[in-house]
Amino acid sequence: MSDANKAVVRRWFDEGLNEKRLEVINELFAGGYVWHGPGEVIINGQAGLREMVQSYLTAFPDLRLTVEHQVAEGEYVVTKVTGRGTHNGPFGEIAPTGKAVAVTSIQISRLEAGKIVEDWQQFDELGMMRQIGAVPPA
């Protein structure tokens, strides 16, 4: 089970994000999917996930995610990922800067019946904002 769950999560990073094939959301994620992000951010459902991911792919069209480490136990998969891309599109109200970013993320995924039902993700959001120049360096 653990290896199969790891394969589902890795497929999301490889096919869904790196190959930008968002149609795999319907195959890999449960209809009642919930994403818990930094702070109090919560995204509900496949449509919410698709919208969030599309906003990042618009802002960083060359986004590439590298799975650094992945461990699994039972229904949980923990994945450490490094994302790299260039801020060539609008990111919310932040105009494109052309600056390169590299951000590390830790994601805990919970799966049921071969589908991702819930994710908890933490990433260096402040570091990303500093790299694109939206927040001054410390």
Number of helices: 4
The gyration radius over C-alpha positions equals 15 Å
Stretches where pLDDT is under 50 for at least 5 consecutive residues are none
For the secondary structure, the number of strands is 6
Strand portion: 35-45%
Give me the secondary-structure category. alpha+beta
- Estimated helix fraction: 25-40%
What do you see in this structure?
This protein has 138 residues and is an alpha+beta fold. The chain has helices at 2-18, 25-28, 45-59, 125-131, and strands spanning 29-36, 42-44, 64-73, 76-86, 100-112, 115-123. The chain has a single domain (2-131), classed as Roll (Nuclear Transport Factor 2, Chain: A), CATH 3.10.450. The protein has a six-stranded mixed sheet with strand order 2-1-6-5-4-3. The longest helix has 17 residues, at 2-18.
Features:
138 residues, alpha+beta, Nuclear Transport Factor 2, Chain: A, six-stranded mixed beta sheet, 4 helices, globular
Can you summarize this structure?
β3 and β4 form a beta hairpin.
Walk me through the topology.
Blueprint: H1 2-18, H2 25-28, E1 29-36, E2 42-44, H3 45-59, E3 64-73, E4 76-86, E5 100-112, E6 115-123, H4 125-131
Parallel strand pairs: 1-6
Antiparallel strand pairs: 1-2, 3-4, 4-5, 5-6
